[in-house]
Amino acid sequence: MNYNIRGENLEVTPALKSYVEKKVSKMERYFDTTPVADVHVKMQVHNSESSIEVTIPMPQLVLRAEEKHADMYAAIDLVVEKLERQIRKHKTKVNRKFRQEGSVKYMFKDNIEDLNEEIATGELGNEEFPEEEVDEYEIVRKKRFNLKPMDTEEAILQMDMLGHAFFVFSNAVNGDTNVVYRRRDGKYGLIEPE
């Protein structure tokens, strides 16, 4: 994995960089082969609160997590735990639904017992990972609506008028389905298909 680590209001020291790389590289044990991926890490400090955001885009799967804590090292530990939970959740959920070659399932080790065996033989660290049960996702409400062609500004206005955090629309310029959303910093984001 290639690491792209940057800091905002924070100098990324060699010790911090080394700690991030050491912790994030432990996630390689979940995969059959070491994933070829760029790991994007953004660390920042605001009002004595440290936050870290880690994004790992891979084929067919994007892992992303962010955490805040008073201590940057604690935030790093928390974000890695969150990423590990995402991997375990994806693995158990995807194993139930997709059985064909090329699905996300085949990126992961066959089962948690293999990981626990490697831990017991000393190939990995000491902690064990229990099989994580994932509750079924329950759809409690469905909505249907026509995607009206509009530009991004009009979609943002519609979203704000409705008081929603996101808005799905048909882009009037190219006809693609897009999503505008409100970011935590109060600005707006746009999601477009590739």
Strand arrangement within the widest β-sheet reads 1-2-3-4
> Which whole number gives the mean pLDDT?
78
Q: What is the number of strand segments?
A: 8
Strand content: 25-35%
Q: What is the global morphology? A: globular
Distance between the termini: 23 Å
Give the radius of gyration.
20 Å
Main sheet properties: 4 strands, mixed
Written overview of the protein:
The protein is built from 4 helices and 8 strands, in the order βαβββααβαβββ. With 194 residues, it is α/β, with parallel strands linked by helices. The strands form 2 sheets. It has a 4-stranded mixed sheet with strand order 1-2-3-4, with helices on one face. Helix 1 packs parallel to helix 2. The longest helix has 26 residues. The two termini are 23 Å apart. The model has no long low-confidence stretch (mean pLDDT 78).
Q: What layout of secondary structure does this protein have?
A:
Blueprint: E1 2-8, H1 14-25, E2 38-46, E3 49-58, E4 61-69, H2 72-97, H3 112-120, E5 149-150, H4 152-162, E6 166-171, E7 177-182, E8 188-191
Parallel strand pairs: 1-2, 5-6
Antiparallel strand pairs: 2-3, 3-4, 6-7, 7-8
